[in-house]
Amino acid sequence: MAHFRRIASTSLTLACLALPLFAAMGAHAQTAKDAPAAAEQELPPVKQFALTEKQVQGVLASQKEIDAITDKIPDTASDKPDAKVQAELEAAVKKNGFASYADYSDVLDNIGLVLSGIDPKTKAFTQPPEALKAQIAALEADTKMAPKNKQAALAEMNAALKSTPTVQFPENIALVTKYYDKLSALLQSDE
Fold it and tell me: Cβ(16)–Cβ(39) under 8 Å?
């Protein structure tokens, strides 16, 4: 289930970073209240590697089936993986070229890292820590957001900044940018 936590955490981070700032702030205020404790736990750093086009296409192809499986997992699920669910996930990702669900999760983490630095309007890439710093500065300057929500959002964003790595493989940027629209739609449908 650690992979579920990482995906939840990646999705939460991407919700803050990949969407337009004001939309992210509105969603973030709600997300900050409802975020599961598992997503707030310290997770190991992303294991970065060069992505292949086949891996990105595999994520896109398997996501609908993965979502159908993970939607059946109760919110109260423990850290112990349910053997039946784990087997379904393994089978779903293997159909799309992954060695295991852990392999799929690592690919998804690398995609998510790159997505977090892509501006949705211009498709220009900024290293994720720099993009997050810019969003923190914009949020600090915002006078319309409720102070309590603003403080919570800033605390979460500053905490995320401490563990947000830079993209180590520049070729991943070009590949994820090529599939940005499909990957972005996939991310938004997960929310």
Answer: no
Q: What pLDDT does residue 190 have?
A: 64
* Rounded distance between C-alpha atoms, residue 25 and residue 28, angstroms: 5
pLDDT of amino acid 154: 96
Q: Which amino acid is at 169?
A: F
Name the 3-class secondary structure at 125. Answer: strand
CA distance 107 to 110: 5
Enumerate the β-bridge partners of residue 118. Answer: 125
Look up the pTM and report it.
Answer: 0.75
Q: Which residues contact 28 (CB under 8 A, 6 or more apart)?
A: 15, 16, 153, 156
What mean pLDDT is reported for the chain?
81
Q: Within a 13 Å sphere around the CA of 45, how many CA atoms are in the beta-carbon half?
A: 11
